[in-house]
Design a protein that fits this description.
single chain; about 375 residues; mainly beta; Jelly Rolls; 2 domains; 4 helices; about 40% strand; C1q domain-containing protein; secreted; Tumour_necrosis_fac-like_dom
Length: about 375
Amino acid sequence: MRNMGSLQWLGAGVAFWSSSRNVFFLTVLLACLVSITPFQIGPVMPGLSSAFSATRSSSVVGGSQRAVTFDRLLVNVGNDFNPDTGRFRCRVPGAYYFTFTVGKYPKKLLSVMLVKNGQEVQAMAYNEFRKQGRKVQSQSAMIGLKPMDTVWLLVQESPDYALYSNAGPYITFTGYLVYPESTSSMGYLNNHLIPPGIQPDCPPPEDPSYSERRRESTEKGRSAFSVARTFSILGESRRHHNREALTFDVEYVNIGGHFNKSSGHFTCYIPGVYFFAFTVGKHPRRAVSVKLMTGRGEVQAMVFNEDMSRKREMQSQSLLLPLKAGDVVWLYSQQDERYAVYSNQGRYTTFTGFLVYPELNFMSPDRTFH
């Protein structure tokens, strides 16, 4: 009986020691987790997430309201978008990608602007056809935002303008945070016209800290740009032996400094899968033909409209591309006299690209399926 009691006491002691050891290790683990800062955990934290997508199932006539509002909210991560006012308010500073599609009302003009804060125009969708038929126009841009900045869609006040939608719906608005603010990235967030005295064919002066910031951005696996044109370009009758890239004078975002708006070239420094989107305006009485190119002129995607009417409208295109370090991506506009690209201060013509997945650890596009 004494031996049995000793064994029971010994078993209880072992169980108590084991339980105490587990509690000790759990306490140490929790202490370690508490000591980790949010930036060590990474941007997957809920507090650093922000995204919305909304649709509208009814039409809007110009003059009835200034902002496009929405009656169906599909996603609202962070609750930063108010569908009743149509306004997105920035909570997490950083680079955001916005895209919208709007329907053209029969026999009405279409003009919708993506604006920031008061009425700072970032980009626009436009169509001046007054035909009976319905169609849609799309636009997109990446914008650098600070806390409390607001982004919304502005409708022309005149009753000559209208947006069409139904239960389809034709009208959609989406935005999401691509890169939270960081020392390396926000240094490239700007929205300035090209400085006076710098010719479009010449690269801008080198910033002494440019190479260092590019290296930091590359180490962090961040690369994004968004640019626009505020003037048109007309094709000429003379033959061009070289395919010249479409250049830009407005820079919304250039994280890593990998895009040169004066040459129109994006150079890949971080291998991986990239998303590209572009929208171009059609010039009155000219056709439009713009291609997304890689390397020395390999066509990846294009927009085309051969209507030679005097009306202005827009064309959009987007896709994902796998890139290696050193690959170059650019837009090419057909350069003979039949073609042109239209834009003005409303910024009809935009070009955006950003890294979605770093590294080339994805399925080869040459793989054959059986």
